[in-house]
Amino acid sequence: MAIQLSKKVAKLNVIATASRDQSRKWCERMGADTVLDHNNLPQQFNNNNLAAPDFILCMGNPDQYFETMSELIAPQGTICLLANAGKDYDINLLKAKSITLVWLKLMT
Question: Which residues are in the Alcohol dehydrogenase-like C-terminal domain (predicted)?
Protein backbone atom coordinates (compact mmCIF):
# COMPACT_ATOMS: atom_id res chain seq x y z
CA MET A 1 0.00 0.00 0.00
CA ALA A 2 2.92 2.37 0.66
CA ILE A 3 4.04 2.18 -2.97
CA GLN A 4 0.53 2.78 -4.28
CA LEU A 5 -0.16 5.75 -1.97
CA SER A 6 3.23 7.28 -2.74
CA LYS A 7 2.50 7.08 -6.47
CA LYS A 8 -1.19 7.97 -6.63
CA VAL A 9 -1.63 10.42 -3.78
CA ALA A 10 1.79 12.03 -3.31
CA LYS A 11 2.84 11.69 -6.99
CA LEU A 12 6.34 10.56 -5.93
CA ASN A 13 8.99 8.71 -7.90
CA VAL A 14 9.13 5.46 -5.91
CA ILE A 15 12.33 3.48 -5.42
CA ALA A 16 11.60 0.18 -3.69
CA THR A 17 13.98 -2.49 -2.44
CA ALA A 18 13.61 -6.23 -2.90
CA SER A 19 16.11 -9.08 -3.02
CA ARG A 20 13.96 -11.93 -4.33
CA ASP A 21 12.72 -11.98 -7.92
CA GLN A 22 9.16 -12.58 -6.73
CA SER A 23 9.35 -9.53 -4.43
CA ARG A 24 10.87 -7.39 -7.18
CA LYS A 25 8.02 -8.26 -9.56
CA TRP A 26 5.45 -7.51 -6.86
CA CYS A 27 6.97 -4.05 -6.26
CA GLU A 28 6.84 -3.37 -9.99
CA ARG A 29 3.18 -4.47 -10.16
CA MET A 30 2.37 -2.14 -7.27
CA GLY A 31 3.83 0.77 -9.26
CA ALA A 32 7.45 1.22 -8.12
CA ASP A 33 9.45 3.20 -10.69
CA THR A 34 12.71 1.50 -9.75
CA VAL A 35 13.40 -1.63 -7.70
CA LEU A 36 16.86 -2.12 -6.20
CA ASP A 37 18.37 -4.93 -4.15
CA HIS A 38 18.65 -3.87 -0.52
CA ASN A 39 22.40 -4.61 -0.49
CA ASN A 40 24.90 -1.86 -1.32
CA LEU A 41 22.30 0.79 -2.03
CA PRO A 42 24.71 3.75 -2.46
CA GLN A 43 26.46 1.98 -5.35
CA GLN A 44 23.12 1.07 -6.94
CA PHE A 45 21.93 4.68 -6.67
CA ASN A 46 25.13 5.78 -8.45
CA ASN A 47 24.93 3.04 -11.10
CA ASN A 48 21.32 3.97 -11.90
CA ASN A 49 21.91 7.76 -11.78
CA LEU A 50 19.25 8.12 -9.09
CA ALA A 51 18.90 11.36 -7.18
CA ALA A 52 19.03 11.36 -3.40
CA PRO A 53 15.53 10.64 -2.08
CA ASP A 54 13.60 13.31 -0.17
CA PHE A 55 11.71 10.65 1.78
CA ILE A 56 12.68 7.20 3.01
CA LEU A 57 10.17 4.79 4.53
CA CYS A 58 11.86 1.90 6.31
CA MET A 59 9.27 -0.76 7.03
CA GLY A 60 11.68 -3.43 8.27
CA ASN A 61 14.26 -3.52 11.04
CA PRO A 62 16.27 -0.31 10.59
CA ASP A 63 19.39 -1.49 12.46
CA GLN A 64 21.46 -2.50 9.45
CA TYR A 65 20.20 0.36 7.25
CA PHE A 66 20.32 3.48 9.45
CA GLU A 67 23.77 4.60 8.34
CA THR A 68 22.97 3.92 4.68
CA MET A 69 19.69 5.84 4.92
CA SER A 70 21.57 8.73 6.55
CA GLU A 71 24.05 8.70 3.67
CA LEU A 72 21.46 8.47 0.88
CA ILE A 73 18.79 10.91 2.06
CA ALA A 74 18.69 14.36 0.44
CA PRO A 75 19.37 17.45 2.56
CA GLN A 76 16.29 18.43 4.58
CA GLY A 77 14.75 15.03 3.79
CA THR A 78 12.66 12.83 6.05
CA ILE A 79 13.33 9.28 7.22
CA CYS A 80 10.34 7.39 8.64
CA LEU A 81 10.89 4.22 10.67
CA LEU A 82 8.14 1.76 11.54
CA ALA A 83 10.00 -1.06 13.31
CA ASN A 84 11.68 -0.98 16.70
CA ALA A 85 15.40 -0.39 16.88
CA GLY A 86 17.51 -3.16 18.29
CA LYS A 87 20.39 -0.82 19.05
CA ASP A 88 21.18 2.85 19.62
CA TYR A 89 21.66 5.08 16.57
CA ASP A 90 24.06 7.97 16.11
CA ILE A 91 21.50 10.63 15.25
CA ASN A 92 24.35 13.10 14.74
CA LEU A 93 24.58 11.55 11.26
CA LEU A 94 21.36 13.44 10.45
CA LYS A 95 22.42 16.88 11.66
CA ALA A 96 24.71 17.92 8.79
CA LYS A 97 21.84 17.51 6.29
CA SER A 98 19.06 18.78 8.61
CA ILE A 99 17.22 15.46 8.32
CA THR A 100 13.89 14.86 10.03
CA LEU A 101 13.55 11.46 11.72
CA VAL A 102 9.99 10.25 12.26
CA TRP A 103 9.14 7.10 14.16
CA LEU A 104 5.61 5.80 13.83
CA LYS A 105 3.83 3.03 15.64
CA LEU A 106 1.23 1.39 13.46
CA MET A 107 -2.37 1.54 14.64
CA THR A 108 -1.85 4.62 16.83
Answer: 1-99
SS3 86: coil
pLDDT in tens, 58-90: 998 999 999 999 999 999 999 999 998 999 999
Across the chain, mean pLDDT equals 94
Q: Which residues constitute the domain of residue 93?
A: 2-103
CB 65 within 8 A of CB 40: no
Q: If residue 74 lies in a helix (H) or strand (E), which one and from where to where?
A: none
In a domain, 12, yes or no: yes
φ/ψ of residue 5, rounded to 5: -65, -40
The CATH number of residue 35's host domain is 3.40.50.720
Q: Is the dihedral of CA 5, 7, 8, 9 positive or negative?
A: positive
